[in-house]
Amino acid sequence: MEFGGYRIVSLLGEGDRGRVHLARSASGRPVALRTVHARLAEAPGFRACFRREAAAALAVTGPYSAAVLDADPDAEQPWLAVEFCAGPGLPEAVAAYGPLGDADLAALGAALAHALSGVHAAGVVHRGVKPSHVIITRAGPKLLDFGVARYAADESPAAVGSPGFLAPEQLARDGCPGSATDVFALGAVLAVAATGRGPFGSGRAPGVLHRTLHEDPDLLGVPGAAWTGFLGRCLARTPAARPTVAEVMAWCGERAARYPWWGREPVSDLIHHEEEEVTELLRWG
């Protein structure tokens, strides 16, 4: 099966909104090809939304963003071709490596802030930054999913996301997600990478959302008072009280490890294993 010249090799995953396949371009380049389920594609206004956001995502650049390579919002099944990123997800990498200390956490924060700066420069608010949307590759962290096709026309973009990483303004009926929304989610991701748990706890969604709106984040175990204060600012309930993406990048950049943790064992071994698996799939697919 092919979509726009990309030949499907293997199914990588499937969710409520579509499927993700490993595919190969005509030149042999591996890509992650995302297709949208027909019921979403036929929703009023969906294709216009897909077309608008795909165009913006194609403009996103930077070493820490998974590049959107091609898209067809008018196909029977709308699809999006994205740079394939071989490596473990952030949760798997941190589980193997252990909670990140000061300099390693800063390296992750600087890279992800750099990725968000490129997303925002293209006129896109990510709206879905979370650990599972970060892949650790040989070249460093790669941020996935820039909001394309994340919601159908009958859904509010403010309501979409994962509890624990949703900013308070996303939970408001008249909320308007902006760049500060992504800073909040980034702060939550860094807290997870440092402590192994979400800053607003776990369990059923209503409880997590209640704590997000009404309680201070749990930052016990982050590496030092400076990080407690910094992540507390990122997770401020009021968007204006949070640092900008540029400020996050500068603050983390000053503290980042010279030799990033993703180049060390056991994470480097996980990356190598993922690369070998993809090579094997492409060889036989």
UniProtKB/TrEMBL annotation:
Residues 6-262 form the Protein kinase domain. The keyword Secreted does not apply. InterPro entries: Kinase-like_dom_sf, Prot_kinase_dom. GO terms for molecular function: kinase activity. Pfam families: Pkinase. Gene3D superfamilies: Phosphorylase Kinase, domain 1, Transferase(Phosphotransferase) domain 1. Keywords: ATP-binding, Kinase, Nucleotide-binding, Transferase. The keyword Cell membrane does not apply. It comes from the Bacteria. Transmembrane segments: none annotated. PANTHER family: MITOGEN-ACTIVATED PROTEIN KINASE KINASE KINASE 20-RELATED, SERINE_THREONINE-PROTEIN KINASE YBDM-RELATED. This is Protein kinase.
